[in-house]
Design a protein that fits this description.
By secondary structure, this protein is α/β, with parallel strands linked by helices. It is built from 12 helices and 9 strands. Helix 8 crosses helix 9.
Length: about 280
């Protein structure tokens, strides 16, 4: 088990050695499949899924070359790596239903929130399972994902999954005991940032800017600031100090944020979301 979070380093994998199957054809599965294809990790001809009720989902996947089957069983039988991308409340039933064809030769991956590895391994009948938690920016190739390896998942299995999920953003490896806190930070975090962008745009409007301009500036400012934090390697506090000149406009704004408890509110939001995630996973 890993005691600390580490960036998962992807190793190139031969694209002619395995097929990738998705159990569940929702938006996250679509984002992963498109990312894998667009990045050149795997051709669409080696990706498959099954669509039952919603014909439009089948059209989405077939539009970029994914092979469609009538049943999940067929997907599993024709795949070497299977990603369970179904809702948490049905993942148990789905895994148990497919258990007869989930052999140890198949690498199993779950992105179902709140479902731990011990449960997944018990339902599948073996421990070659990897749990991954991506977040919604996967839709634009900027996901923050974290994975934890099951009992019999190998280092090579982890490298393969890092390659797949590296196609939709960045991925880290961490002990599963950290997943509730990860849920509170990166899982729920995009919503906090959307609120911040909305509030910043409202502030721009209040200061006299047209709505479209205010929203565009707010969104690009958040994107640019995040890029600086990642690319410069500087501590966010140092980057903040670089902008806040003595007696200037920025420090005046920061003063107002501090009076409102801005940092404490964000910290409390993450802790509250992590606590709720822990509660849900125990139910």
């Amino acid at each position: 088990m890993q005691s600390e979070a580490t960036v998962a380093m992807a190793t190139p994998i031969p694209t002619d050695t395995f097929n990738l199957g998705f159990i569940g054809a929702g938006k996250m599965a679509e984002s992963i499949a498109k990312g894998v294809v667009m990045s050149g990790v795997l051709p669409a001809s080696r990706i498959r899924t099954a669509v039952y009720d919603d014909d439009s989902r089948g059209e989405v996947f077939s539009s970029f070359g994914v092979k469609l089957f009538d049943t999940n069983k067929e997907v599993v039988e024709d795949s070497n790596v299977i990603i369970f991308s179904v809702k948490p409340q049905v993942v148990k039933d789905v895994v148990l239903q497919l258990k007869p064809v989930l052999s140890k030769k198949k690498l199993l991956v779950s992105i179902a929130a709140g479902t731990n590895l011990s449960e997944l391994q018990e339902w599948a009948g073996h421990g070659r399972f990897i749990r991954v938690m991506p977040n919604t920016p996967a839709a634009v190739g900027e996901a923050a994902s974290v994975m934890s390896l099951g009992k019999t998942a190998t280092k090579e299995d982890g490298e393969l999954v890092a390659t797949l999920f590296g196609a939709i953003g960045k991925i880290w490896t961490a002990d599963e005991k950290l997943f509730d806190a990860i849920t509170g930070l990166s899982g729920s975090g995009p919503a906090y940032i959307f609120l911040a962008i909305d509030a910043m745009a409202d502030g721009g409007v209040a200061a006299g800017l047209p709505r479209d301009l205010a929203l565009g500036l707010a969104s690009q400012t958040v994107l640019g600031a995040a890029s600086m934090a990642i690319k410069t390697g500087k501590h966010p506090g140092q980057l903040k100090d670089d902008v806040a000149s003595p007696g200037g406009t920025t420090i005046a704004g920061i003063h107002e944020l501090e009076k409102g408890g801005f940092r404490g509110i964000l910290m409390n939001a993450i802790v509250a979301a992590a606590k709720r995630g822990r509660e849900l996973s125990q139910n």
